[in-house]
Amino acid sequence: MEYNGGIIRIQSQHPKFLSLLQSLDSQGTYSNTIHQQNCTFIKFQENPNLIISTGYLISKFGQAINSYNINIIKQHIKFSLILQDDKEINLNLICLNFDDWIAEKLNNCYIEIELGFIMYFEFPNINIVQQIPKYCSSLLTQGQEVLTINQSPFLKGNVMQKQYCRKAYVSQLFTNQNQSKQLIMLGIVSQVGQEGGGIFNSKGEYVGILLQNIKIGRLNNRYFTFCVNWVVINSIFNKNTPQLSPSYFNAEIINQILNVTKYISQGAGQFGSGILVNDLQNQQSYILTANHVLSDNLKGSKILIGEEQYEALILEDTLNNMDFSIGKAKNYISQGLNIEDDVIFSEVPVVGSIVYAVGYLYTLFQYKPCISKGSVIKIIYDQFNQMISIVTDCFIHNGYSGGGLYNQYGQLLGIISFNICHSIEGVICDLSYITPIFPFQTVFQDLVQQRNLTQTSKDKLKQEIKLASEIRTLCTLRELPQIGYIPKL
Q1: Which domains are seen in the chain, by residue range?
Q2: Which residues pair with 208 in a beta bridge?
Q3: Whole-number mean pLDDT of the chain?
Q4: What is the pTM of this model?
Q5: pLDDT in tens, 341-377
Q6: If you ran DSSP here, which 8-state letter would residue 193 be given?
Q7: For FRET with 424, which of 284, 343, 456, 472 sits at 20 to 30 Å CA-CA?
Q8: Which residues pair with 383 in a beta bridge?
Q9: Three-class secondary structure assignment of 299-332
Q10: Where are the beta strands (DSSP E) in 280-398?
Q11: Residues near 462 by Cβ (< 8 Å), separated by ≥ 6?
Q12: By the 8 A CB rule, do 325 and 288 touch?
């Protein structure tokens, strides 16, 4: 079988690029300014002179410099195709993008969606490369044997052009509803630089492209190899959008919700997360957190905020409420969410909408807060039709409790309460339960308008809701039907 691919060289002196290279190649296999990976020559009706490769490294670079504009990226990075005797031909990057369906599946698997990015290069002289002639028209099946073919980016000259073939089996796969796109996990571990290589079936037909191998920490730091089929590759290019969709990435909003997240403490060994909220007009700061994070929930109890250890006092007893507590800071603290800017979401979130959970990992409070992306999968109401919990598929960890759940516009939806992580027969289900902020609108209105709590707000903070307490006692997946929710795995 003739391989229709090659090696592209990615070179830059930008410090953030060099840092990314070090994280990918800690052994120093390459020069400290160069990364080399495989590429494939594919036919496109719109532009036949195209070369494709994976865009994981470049999308991470775009994230680091807060810009996915390919014109800006090309100012910092040089792309070239390596020929015989280490000669180079410059390549023009014309598209860096991802497929929405692939991004959703990666996110559901708790894998950063940068893994799904593909780069498309315009090539000036198509006569010196051999395009792929045959494409697989059928879907792969689990357990099917495939062949990965690539060249070694570690070598130079003629030896580098040698093809390396390796058999692999489809370990797991996801197929879209239209039965056309596939995200495929292979039962092998690829090496750094092999990403961008081709996947072929036993008939020699092109299946798709090998993605960057990735390490998943929550699965004992094991490496996994994914690929996408050529239908996905065509779909991404046909979108013809060289920049990322703002619905997936908005650096300004992400920075804002990270900055307002603070770790809090109350007594020795009692840690959690909190959200800083400001009344800008009255120059007053408040800290929101989960009730169960606090060892002392009584009015006037002290909370310490952040590494500066700012002091705040609990405004009202909250021992029996919906896992929500609020403290009033003694001093005004900048960088909080401004209540006057409508950052407190005043509506019921839509099921299926994109959300971000932000909090600190337990024992890692000296570092920045962590962020997890997911979607709303259910809203739970009590017998009086009062919203008492938002269920999401965001992955949260010990220490996230008290942190915030935000929509894609940076508006606060609720306070992180707890999660259920259950595994049986190889199926893992993670559900995070969020105390909604919506029922506490009167509390924030009182603080802004009267700088104090009315009796109505005090009663709301003290309100005991039986179903909310029962939800927080859940510990296994089997108990979920008791509250009327059966997760889809």
Answers
A1: 5-239 (2.40.10.120), 251-483 (2.40.10.120)
A2: 199, 229
A3: 78
A4: 0.50
A5: 766 776 788 888 888 888 887 654 445 788 877 788 8
A6: T
A7: 472
A8: none
A9: CCCEEEECCCCEEEEECCCCCCCCCCEEEEECCC
A10: 284-289, 302-305, 310-314, 325-329, 337-338, 354-359, 370-381, 387-392
A11: 316, 317, 318, 320, 321
A12: yes
